[in-house]
């Protein structure tokens, strides 16, 4: 077996603005951006990645905070999970704060960033289902000060990729002023990657329930029909509560939408069933969705 010793990148640039970072990437196309380094340096250390150069994003103060903009929050891509997990952020976007608090052990949360979590596009990225349910947009910085905005779902689905000298600058998230819940199953005690996760977001102004299921597919899945059905049962002007039966039916609906029944075989054949591991995953998704909606409405 051949093993590769990790190689030190030949150049490290530490820009202090987004545009400088983009310019550094344009000047050296073989360089890669690095924020907290929790994903990237793990790949370098394993010998999976040998960047010729690094463009560090850690000194770009403009992307380390957030600000308000037209009923939205403009979140800098350099926000760490630890920062997003704090109470002031949780009061603003509770679902994202809950996901950030669940993202790995403390040393990872102190270094790992929102932009890195998105750009890695890992199925287990904890912020991704929340951003999908919030229908967040990405503001992408490109050469010569250009900015373009795309739905986060387009990047996650591979419909729109980052160009060679482009960076995620900001994430635009609507401020809904309503409960948002993120729940995650890990299959182990303590911090761990999600085996399944569910984000539920209430949008009272549009009388909507938005839900996204993470970790069970390459990108978060939105069970749109289940969302519309359950939203039609909620008394938006009243107590907003639902019966236990309705919550259970919502969980089952979400799980069946995301992990459909296997295709029937030829006429006369028995209806095929999922293997036990898939059935277990489906039950997990159903339980997470039921609990998440129940908590959001309680
Ligand atoms: C032990 C361990 C446990 C973990 N547990 C979890 C977990 O439970 N949940 C979870 O979600 N994640 C987990 N992670 C993954 C990781 O910590 C997160 O994905 C983190 O948010 C990545 O952010 P970063 O700033 O460290 O990214 P980096 O490692 O710096 O970068 C990751 C990728 O994103 C690119 N990138 C970074 N910033 C930008 C930007 N602004 N624009 C464009 N591209 C960019 C980099 O080039 C690289 O390709 C874990 C990682 C480790 C090592």
TrEMBL record:
The keyword Oxidoreductase applies. PROSITE patterns: FAD_PCMH (PS51387). The keyword Oxidoreductase applies. Keywords: FAD, Flavoprotein, Oxidoreductase. InterPro entries: CO_DH_flav_C_dom_sf (IPR036683), Diverse_Substr_Oxidored (IPR051312), FAD-bd_PCMH (IPR016166), FAD-bd_PCMH-like_sf (IPR036318), FAD-bd_PCMH_sub1 (IPR016167), FAD-bd_PCMH_sub2 (IPR016169), Mopterin_DH_FAD-bd (IPR002346). It comes from the Bacteria. Residues 4-178 form the FAD-binding PCMH-type domain. PANTHER family: XANTHINE DEHYDROGENASE SUBUNIT C-RELATED. This is FAD binding domain-containing protein. It comes from Streptomyces albipurpureus.
């Amino acid at each position: 077996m051949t093993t590769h010793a990790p190689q030190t990148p030949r150049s490290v640039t530490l820009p202090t603005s987004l545009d400088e970072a983009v310019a550094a990437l344009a000047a050296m196309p073989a360089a890669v951006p690095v924020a907290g380094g929790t994903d990237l340096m793990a790949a370098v250390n394993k010998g999976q990645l040998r960047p010729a150069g690094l463009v560090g994003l850690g000194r770009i103060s403009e992307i380390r905070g957030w600000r308000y903009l037209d009923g939205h929050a403009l979140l800098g891509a350099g926000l760490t999970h630890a920062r997003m997990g704090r109470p002031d952020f949780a009061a603003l976007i509770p679902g994202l704060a809950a996901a950030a608090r669940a993202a790995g052990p403390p040393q990872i949360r102190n270094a790992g960033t929102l932009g890195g979590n998105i750009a890695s596009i890992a199925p287990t990225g904890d912020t991704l289902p929340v951003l999908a349910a919030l229908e967040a947009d990405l503001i992408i910085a490109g050469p010569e000060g250009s900015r373009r905005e795309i739905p986060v779902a387009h990047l996650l689905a591979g419909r729109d990729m980052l160009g060679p000298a482009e960076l995620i600058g900001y994430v635009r998230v609507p401020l809904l002023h309503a409960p948002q819940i993120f729940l995650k199953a890990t299959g182990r005690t303590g911090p761990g990657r999600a085996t399944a996760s569910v984000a539920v977001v209430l949008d009272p102004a549009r009388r909507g329930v938005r839900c996204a299921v993470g970790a069970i597919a390459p990108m978060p899945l939105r069970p749109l029909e289940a969302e519309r059905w359950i939203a039609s049962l909620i008394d938006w002007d009243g107590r907003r509560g639902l019966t236990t039966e309705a919550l259970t039916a919502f969980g089952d609906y979400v799980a069946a939408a995301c992990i459909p029944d296997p295709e029937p075989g030829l006429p006369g054949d028995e209806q095929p069933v999922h293997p036990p591991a898939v059935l277990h995953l489906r039950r997990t998704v159903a339980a997470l969705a039921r609990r998440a909606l129940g908590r959001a409405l309680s």
